[in-house]
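Researcher: Please predict.
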Amino acid sequence: MLKMSGEDVKFLQSKLKEHGFFKERVDSNFGQNTLVAVTNFQRELGIKADGVVGSLVWNRLKDYGVEKVEVSNDIPNKVSFIDINSGLTIYDNFISEDKYINEETRKETIWLHGTGGGSRPDWTVNGIKNDFVKDKRGNPVLDQNGNTQLYQVASSYIIGRKSSSTNESLWDGKILRTFDDKYWAHHLGIKDNDIELNSKSISIELCNYGPLSLGTDGRFYNSVNKFISDSDVVKLDKPYRGYEYYEKYTDAQLESTRKLIQHLINKYGISLQAEMYTDEWFDYNESWFKNGGIRSHSQVRKDVFDLFPQKEMIQMLNSL
């Protein structure tokens, strides 16, 4: 990069100067001062500070530094990130620091989950905030200081959907961030390789009730016996974990998931494996107990229904 010149270098210097990394005059020449600015920016991102302006540096320069913009709509949270090019918007609804592990780690895997609950991501966040360790009788377990012990179980991101009972769509596709994704929390609940997988991953949950039952009245009901509108029901080509009907992922959810995955891939340089996503990809398999690319909770747990093989979900994954 040294001794290069031109419009690309001018853009690079301008963006670095905009964010406070480059202090000199923008002259379109990649000199020593520009090299120092690039390496300082790479250190800020937590990536190798080699002065090479690759795709990750370019992408992060475009969206770096957009924080705490006041919300102008009905979402009761502040925007923490906006990508003008893709339209990705992230809102913050932070949990307390004792609910996650305040340790920066290298990110290698993006894990996808389903909440197993309602349409609003803030309800899921409130559940995370209020979750605590209980004894066999259901009573809270206290620490040595007499305080309730909190589970360090959480997902970094929760993606809302429209309500299947009221059709209220305010939260459809809205993304809430619960803690800075450079840290980590438990979210898999497995025995094999648990710390390794959790600590090097970022977890995304989609609000969804999951499997549905067809009542004798011909209507569909979720796990809490709540009626689900037919328009929000998907019939799978073949049953998944014993269920043929599921609450459908919305188009807005899938688009927000795609944008968020792409953002995290670019931010952390996460490599996607060269594979086609099919119905079989969603099945449990011991080969999934390793880091790398995109994973589903159901791939490492036989007792959960996270991320079922809806056709539109498969299409979204294959578009990445």
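Model: DSSP finds seven helices and twelve strands in the chain.
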